[in-house]
Amino acid sequence: DLGASLGKSGISVTTIGLGLGFNEDLMVRLAEKSDGNHAFVENSRDLARIFEYEFGDILSVVAQDVEIEIRCATGVRPLRVLGREADIVGQRVYTTLNQLYSEQEKYILLEVSVDSHEEATDIPLAEISLSYNNMVSQRVNRFSDSINIGFTARRDQVEKSIDVSVMESAILQIATEQSDE
Prior knowledge:
The chain has helices spanning 2-8, 24-33, 47-58, 155-161, 164-180, and strands spanning 15-18, 38-41, 61-72, 76-82, 87-89, 92-101, 109-114, 122-134, 139-150. By secondary structure, the chain is α+β, with helices and mostly antiparallel strands. Helix 1 (2-8) runs parallel beside helix 2 (24-33). It is globular and about 60 Å long.
């Protein structure tokens, strides 16, 4: 709750676990909820590296007040967002990011239910709109795109299309939620 509250106030929290005697779940969640970073250092000698990275991040903020809207297509129902606070209102999903650093990647994992379709059918899944304050140009930038999905009964095609890093992230987020419960 503290991380989410700080994130809504525009404050990102970086947490550092020093040694093995810290509550990793708490530290990681605090950082994630505020769109901050988490680091683990085995001993105090590694702290300089972490602080150098963090202070470099502070100076390289490229986007702030990132607002994301996902509009699911007909027949696609948003179920939940994994690992991030979001509002689901009917077919729309709304979430925000406090800030993004240069070369940083953030993602949103949205679980959906999709009506079945005939094999070899491509259908629209969702339209995504994004707006943010561009810290370089000092303007609000807007971006939108759409996502389509295909259907197949061939197991080899399904396995070939799996994005392993996305699946790993989803499994990790689901495990974290189950651990919290």
